[in-house]
Structure formats: structure tokens, C-alpha cells
UniProtKB/TrEMBL annotation:
Residues annotated as site: Essential for prephenate dehydratase activity: T181
Top EC class of this enzyme: lyase
UniProt catalytic activity: prephenate + H(+) = 3-phenylpyruvate + CO2 + H2O
GO cellular component: cytoplasm
Protein name: Prephenate dehydratase
Keywords, comma-separated and alphabetical: Amino-acid biosynthesis, Aromatic amino acid biosynthesis, Lyase, Phenylalanine biosynthesis
BP-aspect Gene Ontology terms: L-phenylalanine biosynthetic process
Domain ACT, first and last residues per copy: 207-282
Gene for this chain: pheA
Gene Ontology MF term list: prephenate dehydratase activity
NCBIfam families attached to this UniProt entry: PRK11898.1
The protein's annotated pathway: Amino-acid biosynthesis; L-phenylalanine biosynthesis; phenylpyruvate from prephenate: step 1/1
EC number: 4.2.1.51
One Pfam family this sequence matches: PDT
Amino acid sequence: MSDKKIPLVAFLGPEASFTHVAANSFFGTSGLVPHPTIPDCIEAVEAGQVDYAVVPLENALEGSVPMTLDYLFHGSKLFINAEISTPIQQHLMVNEKQARFVDEIESINSHPHALAQCHKYLRNHFRHVPLVQMTSTAAAAKYISEHPDEKIAVIANRLAAEKYGLHIEEENIHDLDFNHTRFAVLSTQKQSLEHEGRSEKTKTTLMIKLPEDDRSGILHQILSVFAWRRLNLSKIESRPLKTGLGNYFFIIDVLESEDHSMMKGAIEELTVLNCSVQTFGSYYTYEQQPSRH
Ligand SMILES: O=C(O)C(=O)C[C@]1(C(=O)O)C=C[C@@H](O)C=C1
């Protein structure tokens, strides 16, 4: 018998959320602990209650998950240890008791990203039905399993339909086929987690704050630091600094390890330009293979 300690992993729950599916694919079924919100997951790992947290970072159709970015980049001391890219398939479901009355539903509940991923479908089929935002797709599914008399449909994955005994009214209602979400594995350690099927390249996530004096051309200078070193950026996003209107910082993903000499040089040069640079770790990406969920 192996005496290897099973890590505890917080994930955005309840069970059968997409985050659960992603966490399960990476860590297996043991040690996974559902938390009701993204900040709860982040705080659990900061407080040492769990070893890791798995939280959604970005969806291919909807873009970044602001809650994760806000908690990760504003004051947390966590690092990204791995990234899991998961295919997302959304289904419309109701409680078995409501299966004959789908025409009479009074609201459609789900996570805001899931509602947005099915925007066209909802406009075409349920234009006048109010949409209600929930903390996760699985939270919506769990709710209607516990309230069979309420005339609510939800958008969630197949695992949620199975787990909460719901009737799938329509499958694959997401507007575009290429629907993937990136999840981050976070911990207090600066480390890269190894797992089967990792990407060839390491990715580094940087948070860059501009110098106080608002010089013209500073963004161009920042990008040149990476460009002449042939460091490939896979993402650049600006987010509010929350210090005043128009004050932003940049999140930049670079396809190189921060230990690489070119990266060290780039970070040093950015500091000389009076930018403040914080690294959130270098890590691998894992593509989760499509499953029935
Ligand atoms: O609601 C869930 O099931 C989640 O895991 C959250 C989340 C998200 O934040 O985008 C994850 C993947 C899907 O894109 C929809 C919702």
C-alpha cells in the first residue's frame, strides 16, 4: 500500500460542476472538497485548510472569469501550479416532475458564463423567460432537484443531470462548438505540477503595473521587451487596479519558463522601466479529453 498523502483540493462546487470535472481529471476522485464560491476556494488554500484550489480562469466564448482574476491578482499570495483546459458541453434540464411542463417554465437558472454560452439558443427558444444567475451550473442543478415543484429549467453538464436525477430536455445547447474553459490549479507554493498529457511548453503568468508617471508609449516599450527576445505571449489582458478610474494593470502570459535567461532579462528590463512585475509561477497546460460530460 502506498503511504503517499492524498492532497486536499478545494473546487467551485457543489459536486458535478465543471470545475469538479476539471479537478477530478487532474487529481482523481479522492481529497476533493466542494466550496460554494471562488473566493471560498482561494481563501481555503490561503488558510492552509486545503493544499490546492481549482478555479475557472477563462472561457473560450465568454473570456476571463472576473471573480478569479480579482481574488488572485488583488492581494492573494497564491501561485498557478497547472492549467487544465476542459471541453464544455451545456444541456438544458428540468426536474423529472416538470418534464411534461417545459413550455411553462418561469426561469432558467445557471452560472452567468453558462447562460452567456447559450445566449443564442435561449433567445431563439426562450426569449421571454427570465434568466437567473447562480454560483455554479451544479448549484442550479442541485437547487431544482431539491425544489421539484418550482417551474425552473437549468443549464448544466451531463454529470449534474445524473448526480441530481434530472431530465435532459435538450442536449448541446451552447452556441459554438469550440467551447472550452481554462481552470487554474492554485497553491501557496511556487511549483509546477507534473501530470500525464502535459503541454510541451511552460507558461508563465505575469502581473505588470505601469510606472506612476503616465508616459506615452509605455505599453509599446513593455511589449518590445518581449518581442525582441522572441518571447511568445499567449495572452494580454488589462484589469482595473481599483485605485481610480482609468488605472489598469496587465496580465500577461508568456510561453516560456521564468527561469529561462531571456525571461530573467525581460523581467529585469521591465523593472528598469519602472514597471512593477509580479510572477504567478511557471506551469504546464493539460488538455482534458472530451468525455460524455
Ligand atoms: O458553474 C460551473 O459549473 C463552473 O464550474 C463555473 C464555470 C465558469 O466559471 O465559467 C466553468 C465552466 C463553464 O464555462 C461554466 C461555468
